[in-house]
Amino acid sequence: MTIDALRAHRVSDAWSVFDAVQAGPDGLNAFLSTDRTAVGNATGSLAGVPVAVKDNLATLHMPTTCGSKILDGYISPFEATAVRKLREAGAAIIGKTNMDEFAMGSSNENSAYGPVRNPVDRTRVPGGSSGGSAAAVASGVVRIALGSETGGSVRQPAAFCGIVGIKPTYGRVSRYGLVAYASSLDNVGVFGATVHEAALGLQVIAGHDRFDSTSANTLVPSLVPDLGTSDRPLTGLVVGKPREYFPASLDPRVAERCERALASLVALGAEVRDVSLPSTELAIPVYYIIAPAEASSNLARYDGVRYGHRAPAADLGTLYEQTRSQGFGAEVTRRILLGTYVLSAGYYDAYYKRAQAVRSLITQEFTQVFASGVHLLFTPTAPTTAFRLGEVSDPYEMYLSDIFTVTANLAGIPAMSLPVGRIDGLPVGGQFMAAPFDEATMLRAAAALERVLGAEAHQ
Amino acid sequence: MTNATATTTATSDWELVIGLEVHCQLKTRSKIFCGCHTSFGDAPNANTCPVCLGLPGALPVLNAHAVELATRASLALGCTVHETSVFARKNYFYPDLPKGYQISQFDRPLATEGAIVVGHDAAGIPRVIRVHRVHMEEDAGKSVHDRFADVSAIDLNRAGTPLVEIVSEPDIRSAEDAVSYARRLKQILEYAEVSDANMEEGSLRVDVNISVRRHGEQTLGTKTEIKNLNSFSAIERAVDIEFVRQCTVLAAGGIIEQQTMLYDDKRQQVRPARSKEGSHDYRYFPEPDLPPLRLSAEYIAAQGAALPELPPARRERFVAQYGLGLTEVEQLVVTRELADRFEAMAAAAGDARRAANWMLGPVLAAVNASGQPLSAHPVSPERLGALIRMEASGELSNTAARQLFTMLEQQDGDPLELARGAGLLQVRDDGALVGWIDEVLAENPAEAARFLSGEKKLQGVLVGLVMKKSKGAADPKKVNQLLGARAD
């Protein structure tokens, strides 16, 4: 049924919705560039399906700017593996979506090309950093879009926009052509209007790629869930409810939507078990050491020497300084400085090395929980619903909006968000996390939950 | 510069301490993290792709052949190759460094703890320089300052070329040993066929770390680093000049500043590199785009088995098997090709002693004079072996052997046939010799009479005349015998 909806949504429909939602001062600003000639192929699992791609995935026919001035107008001479696979599956890549600069942000207010608006409520943020892709799906321009995740940048905007977002296992989808933010945490992720559609997109882009040394050489099973007709399709499934993700301080309305989802899982035959992941509280500090450290290195190539923005300068030092000062926005600059600091001699052991040790601890805790017979974990995706544009100005407060999502990136495990209800009309996301490479179980549970929550989740 | 006496006074108080860092380009067809060619001298930026240009989104994939060669190089240097090593990022800004970092190995290198013997002392005890580590890394590109007016250009053909960096312990105590170490290192890498080790093309580049301390002191002094020395003579001169400079500074109560130096061959000068920044902070951290490099014990053993006989072993064998002296052996194993050719010659000649003399004498002289490589020399080891056999058996005189050698250089053909055709074979047949003797005695009746009546000292003159008559073909020993018999 949902796949039929996908097939019924043609490129022409995409453009009519696009024209309606993108234009004007209150437009979504979800796209940075478009390809009006894209039609896709007649064959393949996504034949003729319009798809949007986050602007940090390299494409041949449209610029790849990463939402940054420093790459304004940059057109890549090669294509990201995930994009190539979409194209080969017949998809029409209709446009590149807006994003927080270099994928750094949790609100999509950090793009050099202006903020993206949330289609559910245009005074609010769509979440970040893949907010453009989330908005493109939530507004109905497309039903599948690619995003990227470093600390929750697919799941959090999916939650804010009321759609489905998947972060696969690290290594499941090639990062070749994904402009690096923090290499050991970055993933290409997928948005779908429904679990089925997101799964279909993931099925296309998953698999080993010899151009990415961190790509897993693991067979990709069938990921598109088939629930059959059973009333209790999750019988035998053990879902862990980690207490650290339901703190006393959690907004009771968010907690309530998640509890309802957990009750539904029980109704579907699953067993819910309380579990503990004690290192969770360390995830944000660890993330904000490791991610900026890698970012400071990954972003060193934007120096004005070979491509992108170059500031006029009389000498080399000034060229670097001016190019980078002019080209990078405040958040990117903040993280480069932070990363440079934590890697510098004398601080490496105190920060980076310790962060890696804690990261191992976090990973071990997940491994232990999954080894104890728990198949999936269920948590809120984000502590709040979408906030208003400009509402959160303190960077640290902003960082906390990823509190429930960063652990999956640190541990490299698959995770996803799906709508589990609304608060004052704003979507609430529920998150599943699974053992490495067990996306199939996660997607099956999400599809079952989606089926019973159905219209309820959208109220 | 200070005068010679002052220099001697200043340096005699101090001990020279040297460590070498050698960058060696591995002999792969493609780059270390992509499929681009590594060929030298192509049009600027012809051999580049998104990966070696560090374009946004590109990722490195390790070249398996580079790992093979680096492993062999490490084993050839006597190092322990580790089953797990880790690539790291070395972060710094430079226009010819496309990613803003160099992928290298840092705290977990490919191999550690090797050794190179640089020579033997008077008692025959080997002098050993320890190899601290061998690690893999990518090369940077090249800044070109003289191609366009007012602007610098960047050529990234070299970016991503696979290198091993071989770091010695600070065990070297003289410029001569620094050169010996570099020579032997180059020799081993060439033998192992892991590198062309061509210093002119930059496939072997040497950085020298130098410090001095008072004799008997254990701690190291502040070091300076002389970068990118590209010949053995440059290493020797640069070390000598820098040693004198450091001693002079210290003797005058100054202190040595830790800095990077450049050696100017034209001006015979070592001077600080232009950038006088503080110590670099490379902010190393493990390369997240590459998993740790894991090599099985079997793999490492297989790379060791693939190594040919290396110079140290070959030296020993040559001494033992052929009974040659160390000095000669040193010259014979200088390149693998020379040693191989010598062995083929020795086998064909059945006489290693003579083969060694021929190789180190006439053959190398001819090769050097021709300006061509040894491999292009037209006299094959087999033909030279035949020549040596004839010489050894007395069929050829030394002079005739030299003449035949020249002939062999100029024309093809069987050495025996050529020698016969040119009348170079010594005539030992009594009939012919007696004929010549009779003729000489007849032509010189006065001398003949004196000789026959007992004036023995004339025998030499008469032998000379017989040799002359035979155009050098007569066997002088036999002529002597026959003539001597007449006088008795």
Describe this structure in words.
- The complex is a heterodimer of chains A (about 450) and B (about 500).
- Chain A has one domain: Amidase signature (AS) enzymes.
- In chain A, about 35% of the residues lie in helices and about 15% in strands.
- In chain A, strand 7, helix 7 and strand 8 form a beta-alpha-beta unit.
- Chain A is globular and about 70 Å long.
- Chain A is built from 14 helices and 11 strands.
- An 11-stranded mixed β-sheet of chain A has the order 1-3-2-4-6-5-10-11-9-7-8, sandwiched between helices.
- In chain A, helix 8 crosses helix 10 and helix 8 crosses helix 11.
- With about 500 residues, chain B is of the alpha+beta class.
- In chain B, the strands form 4 sheets. Chain B has a 9-stranded mixed β-sheet. In chain B, strands 5-4-15 form a 3-stranded antiparallel β-sheet, with no helix packed on it.
- Helices cover about 40% and strands about 20% of the residues of chain B.
- Classes of the chains: A alpha/beta (about 450), B alpha+beta (about 500).
- At the A-B interface, helix 8 of A face loops of B.
